[in-house]
Structure formats: structure tokens, C-alpha cells
């Protein structure tokens, strides 16, 4: 089978094609030098496109005052530029927002490699163009070959002009179409002579160097070659895309090793050229040794070189961690099937070089069938390695170290004297060795060297004949000095390393412990707000930089927590934060997006997506980026935070869902009891009314009257229930407004009893109050309602023959009203829930029509409690009262607010 | 008539008694009251009421259990009072032997009609009444004949069984289950879709306006009822 199968398109090719869909297409008009007519060529092509019906807009085109070019601009829709202040004057820049808003089919933006004025959204124009492409807009732009990153140092070597504005090779390689605008050098020079070529002010002094025939020839060749390579790779991609079997099985893979040397960027560029030349994928790694401490500059150099590798389109950029550089490199190389390794020459000093211990040497020895390319730096200005020779600085501590060293030698002398007095020793120098060793281990190299010299002198002075002078009688005595020195250097180096490792290990343990504690603390925090606050404090403590966390809120981001406290960020920082959040990638200081803001923003990602953005303040923009350890810590913190935030969000959602379910249950109970309690009065009203209508003539006068009374009573009861329901709603909503007035408690109690009796209560009531009751400040209507509900409850549950006592007395600025019945009492399991909504006691004997106003719905006491609470009082129930039965509800109200 | 029909009203709400008592007396019923299930059982045993009006929501015992207990030794017609939204409760009450139901709240006329149907049925049980006249429809159960305004209608045997069952309980509700087990057998107790089809067919034949039935009435969720027959 399979033999007749058409070769399938390679997944990579299909993927590349798919990635391009929905994205704008990029066409680059490539030239060898300024003045070859790129802009002109681009505009001419655009005219044709416009005639073909394409919506073309000029985003930004530099005519440099050339008439022919300006004429071509006529009839085009030209976007206005945006003015950006830069060094005291206004600079005209491309307005990307206007372009995005206008959304043409095709936009022309000149000078791909242009650097935007500081404060623009992106530092580079190619990033603006990236955004346009991502938005689905086709872009045409122009580029001179010297601006291509990988050719940067070649161009520099050819022309001796430093080109600062570069674009990553990946962008060039990703361009959908390259148009080569070619002009022979002679002609270009002629145009230059005629003043037709615009040269930037800044480059003016270099013009003479730049525009030389041989330079131009070389640049032209570079441009032609690059364009030709593009054609090759286009062809290759198409062949792969169409599943044509091809000769590309080669399988060369190149690995570039990035070190902290000055030359590392050059090594990376070299590797890129090599990779391009043989069409091999490029991998870039740096090896970090766990206990090595690099200086800030060295760290930055590594970071820069890594970034460069990335922008040159390295297929993989990785940091390996391991103590043995060579071992790690080769392990990775074998794993990745690397065929060639590119390294710089300088690593370690001339001694290591001499000993064959330099990296290239070691690699050459250890590598099996991997070619090693060693790049020799043009200017081998290598910083002195400072590993074995710490700087000699005199501080108090240092002084003490020397004192201790001297002391140890003194002790050695004394011990030596004692021992020689006791026994005869052939060689006492061993004792001095101990002193040197002690100094070396304890204080490092210089005190140790000092101790060796001192030892040598003392040894010579005290123990070698002739005694008590420094004469070196025999040459072999000098041997002691060398041994002392050797011991000093070696052991101090070993001890130094051990000390450093121990310190690093302690640091690490501390960091791990802190991380662990942080994670534990986070897991105990329920609210996202608290998680955020905990995090910024932790980040600030660990990294010593200001930290801020932003959450999405109302379609935007808002500062949730910051340390040191901060509740707003400036507009530029907010833009960077939004970028980080929306694009799910770091932005701000130290990144490619808005690097001029003083914050570095990192998206907080959790398993269900982004939850926010964390920002790290970086006031001094030139400061080295976080070293890998700090970065790892930061990213771990961010990850922990994101997870904690997500967890707290989820738990909150669960709580909300749970309370919604509970509310639903409560509502159902409520509806059931409401419908039951409304039904009885409604049934009575309907029944009485229909009886009257149908049997009016058959009914005796008394019965008719009673039916009418019943309609009225039941309607009143319904009214009471409705009022209670409304009151409950208001209590629930916290909208119970008190209209306080001075009222007489005695009168209120009498009123309540009168109402109950009017509604047909059969119980007996007694009202008792203290003499000379002061008035209390309360809302009369509401308090009456509360009392009515409590009394109604007593009537309902105590039975028709109960005695209900209402008593009021004053004590310590409080009015205490007790309503006591002699009914069966309240069940102990019900008692604690008496004042909750929908709580209903069992009352087997209640037959009497009780005008309790909604008690049946289990609302009466809940409302009473709501009202009493609103007055700042308390309500409580006790049962039994006496003799195993009876119930009492006590309301306490402050006399004044 | 030797004595007035005696009605026992069982309800724990005094308000219900308050309006029911004068209305019943006005319609020549004797009224006995009970507020609890225990009291009701005692009254039924002691006073032998002709009809019981029973509220299902009693404080001391489930109303359905009261029905079961009564049915152990008495076939007194029981009319159940219940909330409109309590279908399952009503069906269960009917299946346990209640004769009819009235939704709370109700107009007094509705209850009186149910009381009449129940007392008539009680009398019919003593001597079989084979003829039912309702809105121009004559159902002669003994001779298996149905005619409308004198013109004979052709019904299939099952259609006739269905109509005859409703006629025998004319004016009273008959639950789906009761109809299904009586007409199709106990095995088909739950096949209510049968019933819908047959009721539709019967209505096509007996109703003046089958889409707006006035003879075979639907009690939603519970069963069917033949309209209350004219006396005579």
C-alpha cells in the first residue's frame, strides 16, 4: 500500500500557511542602499493596486522633497501623522491607531527599520507593522539591506558605518513577498551627485564612507543574495506544501553557545549566517552554573545575546542549568541531534587556554562527531576574569582578618617552641602550615598569603639555624615559602568556593522556604483582593522592587493592589498593562512593547485563562533585567498568585451558587407558605361572598350580617399579611426607615390588645406597666406591628383559652417589654430559630381564627425582630416560663437612639 | 325525605366553618363540624353523616389517611377540599376512595353542585339508575344505547364503556386511573394516552362542539367528569 499515495504536504508547511490566513500580507521593497528608488517603486505599484480597486492608504511615506515621488502621492488617501515630543522638539511619527481605525485593505508604511520616538507605543516601526498585520491589514514597506540584523556586523565591516536600526531576520523571512529594487552602483552615485538621494542628517558625516563604489557593490551583492535566498526558501516551502519529495533531508543542526563574553552577540550572528548558508535550523543555549555569580553586565550580555538569537529566528532559545558546562552542552546537543556547535574563543584566561581547559578545547575533546566552530573575536578585549583573585580592599573586616592571621602564626610559633622544647622535631614547618591553612580557609587568599610570608619568616627566624636572624642559609629552605604560598592559594580558593556555594545554598533554601510559606499563606486567603495584596508585598520583599496587580474590571484593568501603595498608573503604563493582559505576553520596561514605561508587566495566567496582570516597577530603565534566578522567582510568584486568584474566584463562584440555591429553597418555602396562608382568607371571602350572592333570600338576617363581617375580617387579615410581607421586604433590603417619635409604651400595649380583641381573640389579656413610664423614641407604626406579631404568635400557639400578659418596665435607659403566655411552650429545638423566616411551630389545637397577620407564613416574628433591630433593640424568647409550660418573648429597646 | 341530608365539615380553619355553616343550612343541610381528624372519625362513627366535606390539610393527620381509615368501614361520600396546585394529593385522595374534590378557594355554588352529585350517587347505589340525561344526550346504560336529541349514536364498545362509566358517576370526577382500570383493565392503569384518544373520539360523537366540550369535561391533571345531569 502507500506506494501509490501522493506524498502528503508537510505539517510545518501547512501550519505556516494556516498561520498566515486571517493575517495581513507583508510586502517588502528591498534595496541595497538609500536612493535606489524603493519608495518610488512602492508607490508606483500602489497606484496599480488602487486602479485595481484595492483600498490603499498611505500610512507614512518619506518623499524627502523629491518631486517625482511627491507626484506619485497625488490622489492617495494619506493618514495624518502624529506629533510626538522628542528632545524638546516635535517629531512626526506614524499614527498606528489612526491606521487601525481606518482599516484599509492595504497600507503603505515607509522605512521598515525606523526607530520610533520614545514614548510611542512600540519602540520600532516593524512592531507597528506587526500589529497592522495581526489586525488583518496588508502592509507594504521599504527596507535597505544593511538594516537586516544578521547582516549588521558584515555591513559594519564593509562600510565602517555603524547601523543602529535593525529588524529581526524572522520578520524578513516571514514577509509574504520581497520586491528587489535594484539600481547599479554607478547610477546611484550619479544620482547622489545630482542631489537626488536624501541622506539623513545623522548619517551625513558617514556619507563619504558609505557611498563608495566598492561598498555599494558589496551591499548590492548582499541584497541580491538575500533576495535570491528568499526565492529559494519560497520554492522550498511551496514544494513542501505541495508534498513534493525533495532533497532537503540534510539534517544539519547548529547550536550556538552563548556566554557572558563581549563577543557573544557576534558569535550568535556568525552562527545565524552559517545556519542560513547551509539551510540548517539554529538552536541557541546558554548554560547557567547554579553557584556561579555573574556580574550585572555579564548577565545583561547573556540576555542581550539570547534576545538577539530570538530575533534572528533561532528555532530554539534555551537556558540550561548545570555545573559542568561541557557536559551540559554536549548532552543537549546530542539530544537535539546537533551537527555543529558554534562557540566564541574566549572563555577563561590564558592559563586555562594554555592548559587546554578552555571551552573549545574541552568541547573538541569530548564531542563525538559534532563539528566545533570556534569564532575568534575581532577585538579580543576580554574582561579580566575575577574568579580566583578577589579584589584587595581594605576594610575593618579585612584588617581584622590580617590581625587574626598574624595571631595564628604567633600561636604556631608558641606551639612550635613548646614542642621543640619537649621533643626534638625534624621539621616544625608543618605547624605553620596549619596556621596558613587556617587563614586561607577562614579569611581568603590575601590574609593567607600574608600568613605564609609571616610563617616563612618566623620559621626561619625561630626554628632554623642560624636562629634569630632571617638569613636563608640553604636554598632548600625557600621551599617552605613556596609550600606555604601554595597551600594558601589552593586552600583559600577551595574554601572560597565552598563558602560561596554554601552561601548560595543558604540563599536558595531561604528562597524555597519563602516560596513555600508564600504559597501556604496564599492558599489561606479567600478574597482575590487579599491574594493580590499578599502577592505585591511578597514580590516587593523578595525582589526589592515596587509591585502592582491589576484585575479586569468593567472592560478595563484596574489597580487592585500595589506595594508601595499606589492606586493609579500613568496612561503609558496602563497601555502596557492592557497590552500584557490582552496579548497574554509581557510588556513594558525591558520588553519589546512600550519599553519606556517604568513597569514591567507580566500576565497572570491560570488554567482557565488570564486573571490579571502583575507589574514590577523598574525606575532605572538601564538596569540589568532580572537575573534568571530572580526571574524564575518572579514567574513562580506570578504563577502561584494566578492559581490562588483563580481558586479564590472559583470558591467565590461556588459560594454564590450555593447561596443562590439556598435563596431558591427559601423562596420556594416562602411561596408555599404564602400561598397556603393567603388561600384561607381568600377561600373565606370567596365562600362568604358567593353564599351571600346565591342564597341571600334563604339566609336569616343574622347569618347575612355575619358573612359580611367575615368578608371584612378576612380582608383585614389579608391586608395585615400584605403589610407584613412588605415590611419583610423592607427589612430584608435594609430599607426600613424609622419615623421616630416619642411614644407611650402603655398606650402601645393597650392598642395592640384592642386590635387583637377586635379581630376576635378569645384569649384573656393583662397589661401591666411600671408607674411613671418615660416615653421611648420609636416608630409607632412599626413598633405596633412588631408587638402585634408577637402577641399574634402567642395567641396562635398558646390556644384559645390562654392568658397573655403584657408587661413593660424600665431599667438602665432601656424599656423592656415582656409578652408571656401560659400555653404549652416552645419546643427546645424550635426555640433557637424562633426569629428566623418561615419558622412555624406545630400547633395541634389551633382552631380559632387568629388575626395574626402573616404569622402562618412564619414571617411574624422575623419581622418583629427586624423592626426591633432597626430600633437598636433586642428580642429574645424563653420557654418554659413556669411549671414546664408557657413562653415569653422579651423586647428590649433603648429609650433614646 | 325522612330527614335532611347531614353534612360533616372537617376543617381546622374556623373561617371556613364560619361561611360554610350558614350556606349549608340555607340549602337545607344539617351541619356537623369537626376541626381535627380524630374528631372527624369520631363524628362519622357516631353521627353517621350522609356526606363528608374534608379538608386535606389537617393538623393532626394526613387527610388521605383519614379517607383510608373511613373507607375501612364506611362508604359515605367524601368531598375533598384542597389547593388547586396539589394535583397528586387530590388524585391520591380520589384513588383512596374520595368521591370528588373542590379546589380552594371555591364559590359556594360549586360545592353545592358537588354535594348534590354525591348525594344522588349515594341514592343511585341503592337502586341502579340506568338512564342519564345531560344537555340533550341520553345514555341508557342497561341497554347500551346512546342518543342525542333522539337520534341514536353509534359508539364502539370501548367508547360506550367509557361513556357509561362517566354516566354512572355523572357530575363526579373519575380519575384517569379509575377509568383505565375499569375500561381497559388494571394492566393499562398508566396508559393515559389511550384515554385521551378515546375521549377525543367520544367527544366527536356526543358533543355539539367537540373543540369546546360541555358534556365530557376535563379535570386537568386528574381525570374526567360528565356534566351534571338534569334531574328526572
What is the CATH homology-level superfamily of the largest domain in chain A?
Answer: P-loop containing nucleotide triphosphate hydrolases
CATH architecture heading of the largest domain in chain A: 3-Layer(aba) Sandwich
Strand order, largest beta sheet of chain A: 3-2-6-7-1-8
**Could you list the spans of chain A in which at least 5 consecutive residues all have pLDDT below 50?**
1-6, 201-205, 243-250, 380-393, 842-857
Distance between the termini of chain B: 17 Å
Which structural class do the helices and strands of chain B define?
A: alpha/beta
Q: What's the main sheet of chain A like?
A: 6 strands, parallel
Average per-residue pLDDT of chain A, rounded, comes to 78
> What's the rounded overall pLDDT mean of chain B?
86
Strands of chain B, total number:
12
Ends distance of chain A: 95 Å
Helical fraction of chain B: 40-55%
Helices and strands of chain B, in order, run as EHEHEHEHEHEEEEHEHHEE
Strand order of the largest sheet of chain B: 2-1-3-4-5
What pair of chains forms the biggest interface? A-B, 33 and 27 residues
The main pleated sheet of chain B reads as: 5 strands, parallel
Molecular shape of chain A? flat
The number of distinct β-strands of chain A equals 25
Q: How would you classify the quaternary structure?
A: heterodimer
Organism (chain B): Microvirga alba
Pfam family, one (chain B): Response_reg
Subcellular location (chain B): Cytoplasm
GO molecular function, one term (chain B): cis-regulatory region sequence-specific DNA binding
